[in-house]
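hey so u asked for the seq, here:
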Amino acid sequence: MSSVREWPKTERPRERLIKEGAQSLSDAQLLAIILRTGSNGKTVVNTAIELIQNFGSLRGLDEASVGELKKFKGLGTAKIAQIKAAFELGRRVLSERAFEQVFNSAETVFRYFYPKLNGLKKEVFITLLLDTKLRLIREVKVSEGTLNQSLIHPREVFKEAVKESAYAIILVHNHPSGDPSPSDQDIDITKKLKKASEILEIPILDHIIIGNGRYFSMKERGII
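ran it, structure tokens below
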């Protein structure tokens, strides 16, 4: 199989990125730039394609442990470190942007959280702590796993909000099924937390459920 160096310059990932921008490249081509070289007689692009296929998606690759990555033929310590570093940099960029973002709509919250929560196999319940300008103070993971009344207790939801003197909070969780429609339990938990928010005078601005490419806003639907 020919080396990437033998490809026309217009087809080489690095050259295309510089000329056309990173957005013009596929996931595999971007990953190929991070990996730099192929393995086992395969081009780096083919290696990248096989990696994504093996772990199912970029998220699957991100969530893979170092041990799981080592089982993939051709991935040594250096390449694994490069992959992990690239994903971590992406997360840090998202975190920096969050502090500049005004969380004043369900659409804004969805755009911020969808890349983080889409494809997860477990439900994750997160509280966004906001200041008076509706900018992020920080986000707090309250629980991970199937949501129930015992896990999502007002004490756990509001503890950090009180500590940080948050002006308001937004509740966010995902549905691994991809359907963001709320369950009866989702609605019951929200109403319970709403009562606690009124006592503490820390308003819940919304509870947003993230699904596959779409969301459900309890504020927009008049539930809170």
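The chain has two domains: 4-96, 102-217. Strands lie at 124-130, 136-144, 168-174, 204-210, 215-217.
lmk if thats what u needed
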